[in-house]
User: Which sequence fits this backbone?
């Protein structure tokens, strides 16, 4: 008998089970996933994690900033969102309910550089538009907020 196993982007198992949950948590009543993007000033990179509502990490992607300017931050943000979304198991990308940013106070300027209409005084800074959807696969209208 010849058995073959394949692992990769289609693997539904979580990267981290810290907090709670299991590989079936998302489908068993918690149909939401959030992409969380944080700026690591020490390494000069952005980290994007796809996290379910119960704290299970299903994807992780990192992108180094080319420079310390707004254009580089925005380009890295778009890239890390696309990579983080692509790492999610297939049905989960459609269940992304929000994007949470922790960019050291530079969230609004990075989103503005991406051409998004930003409302800095609101809980929701912006929403994914059709152009960002085309680049990342994240549904247009998905709210983008500052990580609390």
Assistant:
């Amino acid at each position: 008998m010849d058995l073959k196993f394949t692992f990769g982007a289609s693997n539904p198992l979580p990267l981290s089970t810290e907090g709670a949950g299991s590989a079936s948590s998302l489908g068993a009543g918690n149909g939401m996933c959030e992409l969380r993007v944080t700026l690591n000033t020490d390494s000069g990179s952005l980290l994007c994690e796809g996290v379910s509502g119960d704290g299970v990490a299903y994807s992780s992607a990192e992108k180094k900033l080319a420079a310390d300017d707004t254009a580089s931050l925005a380009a890295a943000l778009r890239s890390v969102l696309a990579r983080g979304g692509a790492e999610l198991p297939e049905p989960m990308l459609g269940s992304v309910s929000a994007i949470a940013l922790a960019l050291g106070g530079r969230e609004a300027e990075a989103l503005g550089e991406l051409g998004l209409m930003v409302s800095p005084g609101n809980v929701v800074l912006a929403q994914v538009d059709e152009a960002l959807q085309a680049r990342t696969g994240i549904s247009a209208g998905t709210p983008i907020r500052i990580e609390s």
Summary: The longest strand covers residues 33-40.
